[in-house]
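pinned: reference chain
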Amino acid sequence: MITDINSYRHKQKLTRINELVKELMAIRAEISELRLEECQLRSTIKELARELDQ
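pinned: its structure tokens
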């Protein structure tokens, strides 16, 4: 009985870890997309600032 409970708890913990890893990977992907968007916006701002100086 105790072994069954421990196995169940262990399985629950592994399931939770897997969920957290998936969430982490999704967040990392979102961060990468935001960094790319930031670079594009910075480039656009620099270009517009150059146009104002001309």
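why pinned: The chain has one helix and no strands. Helices lie at 2-53.
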